[in-house]
Predict the structure.
Amino acid sequence: MNRLEAFHRIAEQAGRGDLMFPTNVNATLKLKKALDDPDAHLVDAAKLILTEPLLSARIVAMANSSAYNRSGMEITNVSTAVSRLGFRTIRSLTASLLVHQMSSSLTNPVLQAKAKQLWEHTVNVSALAQVIARRMTKIDPETAMFAGIIHEVGGFYLLSRADAFPGLLDGELEDWVEYGEKIIGRSVMKALEVPDIINAAIELIWQGGGARPPTSLGDILVLPNDLSPILSPLLPESEISSREVHSEIDFDIGNKTLRLILEDAEEETESLRSALLH
């Protein structure tokens, strides 16, 4: 089977809803479903989260980040962290664990390196999206962070299947963009029951464009995707060469500029990156 046939096979299966997730992802999906229950309570959520050590650590780290802990008093337990963050942020962190787990079973060193780079890109985008939404718009920053976390979920799913299709990601990746990105991405987001407003924002990345200064969730997502110093390893060379240099992107926002705002928020952005990365 050549790589184009492999892309078609994976995309066709995804389009039918025939998605193959690693076992640990299935467990986290059950946790996500429980947290999405409108009748769920924070006390019950804390008990569920304690069953997943990595998520517990990530939630405590996020609660201690400068973006959420203005008092500086260290939080040392999951219950307090859950109360501090609230359901929307907890759901985003659960999604971040789920996305990261998709490529956790890879054994090929090349694929492992691609997964690591894709996660670092995702973390950069989600942290910047939260800060940009809060500092520059009236869009909910928690929604922006969640959108950033899952905007490459199709890529993570593709990587999770690549061990079964040797050579799938060798060479140029136009086939991924042309045949796989939208079909696989849409199918995985459907399986994860991603809200329509976030689906539409991610579609804007695929289409290209986005207003500056940002005014919509899609604009907010496009901007940090362009600003991220770490690019997706699934971008074809032709698209990389046509992108703006991230350090040169700037524009006026009121009496400030994008760069001044980002410099002022650097500590908060870094604290978000750190909490999501580890």
Notes: Residues 3-17+102-277 form one domain.
